[in-house]
Amino acid sequence: MKPPHTLPIIGxxxxxxxGIGPEILVKALNNxxxxxxxxxxxxxxxxxxxxxxxxxxxxxxxxxxxxxDQGKYEFxxxxxxxxxxxxTDCSSLSGPTIETGTAMQDYITKGIDLALTHRISGLxxxxxxxxxxxxxxxxxxxxxxxxxxxxxxxxxxxxLSGKTLKVVLVTIHIPLSQVSxxxxxxxxxxxxxxTHTSLKNRFNIxxxxxxxxxxxxxxxxxxxxxxxxxxxxxxxxxxxxKDGINVSGPLPPDTVFYQAVNGxxxxxxxxxxxxxxxxxxxxHFKDGVNTTIGLPIIRTSVDHGTAYDxxxxxxxxxxxxxxxIKMAAFQAINKKAQKK
Length: 340
Hints:
Blueprint: E1 9-13, H1 21-28, H2 34-37, E2 39-44, H3 46-56, E3 61-65, E4 77-82, H4 98-116, E5 122-125, H5 130-135, H6 143-151, E6 157-161, E7 166-169, H7 179-182, H8 185-201, E8 210-213, H9 228-242, E9 247-251, H10 253-261, E10 267-270, H11 273-284, E11 289-293, E12 299-302, H12 319-339
Parallel strand pairs: 1-2, 1-5, 2-4, 3-4, 5-12, 7-10, 8-9, 8-10
Antiparallel strand pairs: 6-7, 6-11, 11-12
Helix pairs in contact: 1-3, 4-6, 8-9
């Protein structure tokens, strides 16, 4: 166990106050082990956290601070940077409002800025929705796009990570009908390289093994079912290999995930959102973590949404958030070791 003063400070944004974020955040920090891995700092709203504590009948002390260095970071004490002051009983709301959506966005931007200025070592985000972002006047579809814009990251990707499967997406939030037209050799090469670098630097895998999934059934089967593999994906894989990356593909999507889960590959680069997320969530529905690779900061997140239908009932599962906090701390420690 690391001495407390050497542990990384991990900021955790509260997410949409109307969703399950406050509840799972309080539940995740109701575990003394978290405080042996990192110094957890809540970026949110102390009034909402107190509502969540009352809902769960937890007796933690709420410690409001204005600077990460002021935190006590002790079990049973929740260190919080108050970014909003919402007095509404969120359990009475069925969906986000302008006030809660704006607050949610403010938590994220504050967390990003703290990470960029090295006031915290990593950022964990609780769930948000596009609806809430729109109410807040945002131009972004989700966390990933907002993070990339604010950190000025040009090359980035969404990685979903669990103990047995990691997937990286080439395209993210676009209609399935547009995927083929949006695929380029350059983008696929970038995602392969990002995956390789992140597996080495953030996950401490010395010689990463990467698989690239095809787009079409049977990976095109010699262009019988489409030419994307022949014209776009295979050339990208060949170029990545020339740079010394251990990468295979394009491989049939119906078998590559089985091979990865059974240890043949460390990650699978996928062509579109559901190609990667369906097998990933089948394998890691409760403990999966979303981490954005290619950013200048460490960011992990839960791999689920706001779950308005069960919010503020005390029944939400906090497993994914627990794993996201652990992963952020793990990546922060690896990143620090890389600098030495």
